[in-house]
Fold:
Amino acid sequence: MSARETRLDRKFAELAAEGQKAFVAFITAGDPTPDISASILSGLPAAGADIIELGMPFTDPMADGPAIQAASQRALKAGQTLEKTLDMVRNFRRGDDKTPIVLMGYYNPVFIYGVDSFIEDAVAAGIDGLIIVDLPPEEDDELCLPAMAGGLNFIRLATPTTDDKRLPDVLANTSGFVYYVSITGITGSAAPDADHVSQSVARIKRHTELPVAVGFGIRTPEQAGTIAAVADGAVVGSALVDVIRETIDDANTPDTACTERVLALASDLAAGVHNKG
Amino acid sequence: MDGQNSYRAGPDDKGRFGHYGGRFVAETLMPLILDLEAAYKAAQSDPAFEAELVDLQTHYVGRPSPLYFAERLTEHYGGAKIYLKRDELNHTGSHKINNCLGQILLARRMGKTRIIAETGAGQHGVAVATAAARFGLPCTVFMGATDIERQKPNVFRMKLLGADIRPVTSGAGTLKDAMNEALRDWVTHVDNTFYIIGTVAGPHPYPAMVRDFQSIIGKEVRSQMMEREGRLPDSLVACIGGGSNAMGLFHPFLDDSDIRVIGVEAGGLGLSTPDHAASLAGGTPGVLHGNRTYLLQDDDGQIIEGHSISAGLDYPGIGPEHAFLRDVGRVEYVSATDREALDAFQLITRLEGIIPALEPSHALAHVGKIAPGLPSDHLLVMNMCGRGDKDVFSVADHLGVSL
Structure:
């Protein structure tokens, strides 16, 4: 765990004190355009998002389903880069110094940016943590250890295939929270089973004191509420991203409608998570 | 040479060849990769595994494949003595079957009941579908929609063999996207599924395992050349997409420092254009599909689609061991363009009565550049890794002939 307290640590402590669970909202940076994406980002805290997971677009998102793949492609087509994603967070921080932001993505864009300069620029931009899908504990030297030394949380994915023997290795260099992937599969797949999730969260908690947020396959406020009830937080991504796709399918939809509709769903999801909390 | 001084010592226990390779996969796959590594190690030391594989290689594939002295090609170039390693004569028409049989035997040992694979030109897909049919396992092959269009004969062959073909439309609909989709399927069906990767790429242990199964090519060349000429060859030439046929030929010779080793990448429309698939000549190190290697990518780390006349070579990456061998300077990497490959394809068809696949036509194009300048006692071996039946339609198209 990081020595100093981070926005993530504070947020989870604050929610726990209120008896609440975290609603973690995922959007892809730059989707569908840099401007609309920035307006969605700035509206998410007021809509009830406790933590924001911001996807770094990549051409080859191997763990993602069609919704988030398409979001990456839209963002890249609109000219999004890792540098612009960091700028986007820097701008967000001018109006919000409390909501934790976690960058999620794949290692290659970070590797090409340069690990040391990325960590320095991410911290300066106000980013709190990283979730890098294709960096298992076996590759901790690459980014995890330097990022933690630089003051970023490194949030690890634990999955149904992570057995008790492996779990301590997965948790060893994890900080901020643990992201439990509720299904074996890609993002946006079938809904997870609450009993199974409940048992898995309990299993993880036997090995760590970190909060456990659950994601993959959660689409509705009801599902988010059910899952949040048996964990410390629920992550929703594909459902929010699908709303973006729907609004841009209609060429005449003004930009504001996209932002409004995404935030409306975020607000429903937040209500689902918080009512059951 | 041995130990640290050997070019054949890799990978280390983290799956690295120098800086390259590794295990850059999602956590869901990591326990499987570790299981696979353990199962492969156990199989390597089990004589029964080896015996079963050798039996299939001999009686099902038809190994050893001949080492053929290409007399008229040699006369035509008027230099080096050119030998062709005839892996296109294997059952299924390419070297791909060497690896598929090894991996399917491993899948059976691990109790897996479903096979998946990616394919570009369809040669690997056909070999996987063949092995799956032979062992009665259901098989799903992911293939880019663009490749399905340009490799129709192989698509039909796979269907005849009982494979389920899944067209991939994401990205440019080629090999890279097929590999993404296969990884997505694997992560969703971890319990029962074995992923047969077709080239020396992917997370450890795949690059080493595929190389080992393909090394039979180079091992046979060693003994066949000793028998024919009483000595080892002077140079080796093979084409490279992901690089499995080349690694299979090269690996047994890497520590014979006098032997010149040359890999030929797909130069597409030329290295000065964006339309090529030469990851080593035109790429930079990055991380994709589970390993660090040279990739075609932009300065934001986004992967660029490769281009080649050959669907089997237009992968934007290359096996990590090739990346290592390039950096240490043991292997020379060059390229041949679409046009040069097409010319070589026609030349060898007329001179030797061998219709090659477009992939080894790239290797042949390079042989044509170097052979005339070499002495007549120089023994050159080119890997004829696939036959050209599958390419007849697309070659006709490129030559402006309608069938």
Chain A has one domain: 7-273.
